């Protein structure tokens, strides 16, 4: 398998954690988002959305991090990243989507470029925008976080794979995290696991700073 990603991409970070947890070695193919490599024709042939990650498995190119994680879950069952119980599965998916659909996309590079370029917004307005949507999303996650070392108790789930990268992004954009003591405690617990540590942006070969 080949993972097309970018060291600072939070969506690619989710997939890296899943691959590490499941013990799968893949070849890395960095796509430099800063130079617009995601819009190169060769990359668009793999993922017409021009977004990372994209996981190539044999003849198949898969996009969308949560779809990729569920593909890995279905093809490599252990360790499970979704609970067996349907209600618990729905809750894990809901928390994952709360991050992947409600927080992440509105703070994505192309959205920020549009706000800055077409809409002429200055950097401080963009910073406020990012922090606003992260704060709203994190407040709900903090309120819903149960007991236990991870978001859903003692087992790592897909929701944890979404949380850690989103906290990384929040920190990068200067979000005040002291308001989310449970989330940051869970983050600490997760980053102590080798699969999460190896997946950190700064541990990727294409990391530049
Ligand atoms: N929903 C997608 C989001 C993918 C995405 O937005 N990736 C970002 C990096 S985190 C990207 O490629 N951005 C490039 C751009 O905005 O031009 C997923 O979960 O895979």
Report on this model:
The protein is an alpha+beta fold and 209 residues long. The chain has two domains: 2-78, Glutaredoxin; 86-196, Glutathione S-transferase Yfyf (Class Pi), Chain A, domain 2 (Up-down Bundle). The chain is 51% helix and 8% strand. Helix 1 (10-21) links the parallel strand 1 and strand 2 (27-30). Helix 1 (10-21) packs antiparallel against helix 7 (158-172) and helix 4 (86-100) runs parallel beside helix 7. The two termini are 27 Å apart. Glutathione binds next to helix 1, helix 3 and helix 5.
Quickly describe the structure:
The chain is α+β, with helices and mostly antiparallel strands.
Keywords:
209 residues, alpha+beta, Glutaredoxin, Glutathione S-transferase Yfyf (Class Pi), Chain A, domain 2, 2 domains, 4-stranded mixed beta sheet, 9 helices, 4 strands, 51% helix, globular, binds glutathione
Task: State the order of secondary-structure elements, H for helix, E for strand.
Answer: EHEHEEHHHHHHH
Which CATH class of the largest domain applies here?
Mainly Alpha
Strand order of the largest sheet: 2-1-3-4
Radius of gyration: 17 Å
- Which strand-content bin applies to the residues? 5-15%
What is the count of β-strands? 4
Q: What is the CATH topology of the largest domain?
A: Glutathione S-transferase Yfyf (Class Pi), Chain A, domain 2
The small-molecule ligands in this entry are: glutathione
Supply the helix-strand structural class. alpha+beta
CATH architecture of the largest domain: Up-down Bundle
When the domains are counted, the total is 2
Helical run tally: 9
Separation of the first and last Cα atoms? 27 Å
């Amino acid at each position: 398998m080949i993972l097309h990603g970018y060291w600072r991409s939070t969506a690619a970070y989710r997939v890296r954690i899943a691959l590490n947890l499941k013990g799968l070695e893949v070849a890395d193919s960095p796509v430099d988002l800063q130079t617009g490599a995601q819009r190169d024709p060769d990359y668009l042939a793999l993922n017409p959305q021009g977004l990372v990650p994209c996981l190539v498995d044999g003849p198949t190119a898969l996009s969308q991090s949560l779809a990729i994680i569920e593909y890995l879950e279905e093809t490599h069952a252990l360790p499970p990243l979704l609970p067996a119980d349907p209600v618990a599965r729905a809750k894990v998916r809901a928390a994952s989507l709360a991050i992947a659909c409600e927080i992440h996309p509105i703070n994505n590079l192309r959205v920020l470029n549009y706000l800055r370029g077409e809409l002429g917004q200055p950097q401080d307005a963009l910073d406020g925008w990012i922090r606003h949507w992260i704060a709203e999303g994190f407040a709900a996650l903090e309120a819903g976080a149960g007991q236990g070392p991870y978001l859903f108790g003692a087992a790592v789930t897909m929701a944890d794979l979404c949380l850690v990268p989103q906290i990384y992004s929040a920190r990068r954009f200067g979000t005040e995290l002291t308001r989310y003591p449970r989330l940051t405690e869970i983050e600490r617990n997760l980053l102590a696991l080798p699969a999460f540590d190896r997946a950190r942006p700064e541990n990727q070969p294409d990391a530049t700073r």
